[in-house]
Amino acid sequence: LNAMRNVSPDHCVRVADLAPLLVRLATTEAPNVEPPSGDQMRPETEQFVDPPDMMQDPPPSESQISLVCPECGGTLYEQKDGEIVHFRYHVGHSFSPETLSEAHKEALERALWTAVRSLNERVTMHRQFLHRQRSAGEEILSKRFEESVAAAERDVELLREIISRV
What is the mean pLDDT of residues 90-109? Predict the structure, then answer.
């Protein structure tokens, strides 16, 4: 539906009819159509025609934004093609607002799960330190490990709650 709102599709079929359509399109000769002129080419088509051009910096404009590419961490810039908005990075990554939001959500969830794993490792490590034989001078250190275990366990629960809302 999003594509149909923004461009004129050549075909619109039910999922069940997709395979026969693809077979028909792949086995018939394409109509003789004039290639688009340079002015008519869509930016995403131009971007992938000449790979060396993809490595150049984005065009200077006010559309440089403070978002990073969820795939590589590079700075995204906004590009409009009529009513269609894309967020791009100069190596070729491109996102619609919806896909950028979903990709950032996935990156955030991965980061939160990494934090949960790291905190669980900290709990395990500090519990192991607590269970080994202690000398009298290690009581202060043992107290710190006990506090660290308790704090990490609370943080893990908080992170799990946050993840459930993401």
Answer: 88
Q: Are 85 and 114 in contact (CB under 8 A)?
A: no
Query: Nearest-CA neighbor of 53 among 88, 99, 95?
Result: 88
Asked whether residue 40 carries a pLDDT value surpassing 70, the answer given is no
pLDDT of residue 51: 47
Alpha carbon 97 to its chain centroid, in Å, reads 12
How far is Cα 60 from Cα 108, in angstroms, rounded to an integer? 29
Lateral strand order in the sheet of 94-95: 64-68, 75-81, 84-88, 94-95
| CB within 8 Å of 36: residues ≥ 6 apart | 45
Spell out where 39-155 has E strands: 64-68, 75-81, 84-88, 94-95
